[in-house]
Amino acid sequence: MGTTAPDEHAFRELTSTYRHELHLHCYRILGSLTDAEDAVQETLLAAWRGLDTFEGRSSLRTWLYRIATNRCLNVLRDTGRRRPPEPVPPFDPPEPSRRGEVTWLEAYPDELLKDSEPGPEARYSTREAVELAFITGLQLLPPRQAATLVLRDVLCFPAGEVASMLGTTETAIKGMLQRARASLDKHRARAAHRPSAQERALTRRFADAFTEGDLDGVLRLLTDDVWLAMPPAPHEYHGRDAIAGFLRVTMAIPVEAFTMTPTRANNQPAFQCRHDEEPAGLMVLTLDGERIRGITRFLDQK
């Protein structure tokens, strides 16, 4: 491909097939929609500028993934870009159960997802590989381990190609993959499911109780080990009692016209929240059978 450089229109046509999957790939590694979009833009710009050096020894798709993965690793090394400022709450919250590390996490709207069958070597289902527990677990791994796991266990690139992408050996890839799998298994949740009548009924009951300020009604829908996180705030509350203490404070604040509109993100039920018609964040629920096991309130995300 190095003898005659295509024009910009031809290049866009050539790479448009891969843009969506590159965006999801960057999101998995970075955990941020904003950073993922920037990484894809930088990837395509670098590919355009370096197209005359592409000799076809790997597929175009592999070449683009190599550029995208290394762009993501560069972002992860720049900790200044990774952590948004901690928001100041308009009330005095109770002491959190812990302060979370992954404050840059953003939800991935289901409308951006496209169904695809995982390869035969995939360790994680397509839906599981985008749910919040999986994405959060990736953020807690060393960056090269996270990239290795995504490339091998989600995208099923051969070990040799992954080694070439990351500039290392197949032996090193095998070691990083083993360590990444062991660490990520601690964060895995039940696989997400498609919307069902049971899910819709549960989430509707939750929204009704929440918007009506019915604390007991909300708590009845939660598992004993439920957790609440609020990126970009680091505050996390674990267990029904801790969440009850937090909600008791927040629900005591008068709020006019608080609404929750059903949507989906990360293959999970979600709500777009509004205060008096103004955006008030995105709430994503993690379900466990007929109860709610996790609430993630993305304070700044519409």
List keywords for this structure.
transcription regulation, alpha+beta, 302 residues, Rna Polymerase Sigma Factor, Chain: A, 17% strand, sigma factor, RNA polymerase subunit sigma-70, WH-like_DNA-bd_sf, Nuclear Transport Factor 2, Chain: A, seven-stranded mixed sheet, 45% helix
Apparent shape: elongated
- The proportion of strand residues reads 15-25%
Q: Could you name the ranges where pLDDT drops below 50 across 5 or more consecutive residues?
A: none
Strand order of the largest sheet: 1-3-2-7-6-5-4
Supply the helix-strand structural class.
alpha+beta
Radius of gyration: 21 Å
Listing every helix as H and every strand as E from the N terminus to the C terminus, the arrangement reads: HHHHEHHHHHHEEHEEEE
The main sheet comes to: 7 strands, mixed
Total beta strand runs: 7
CATH topology of the domain at 197-298: Nuclear Transport Factor 2, Chain: A
Q: N-to-C terminal Cα separation, in Å? A: 42 Å
Q: How many helices?
A: 11
**Would you state the CATH class of the domain at 197-298?**
Alpha Beta
Residue share in helix: 40-55%
The assigned CATH architecture of the domain at 197-298 is: Roll
- Mean pLDDT reading: 89
Provide a compact summary of the structure.
This protein is of the alpha+beta class and about 300 residues long. It is built from 11 helices and 7 strands.
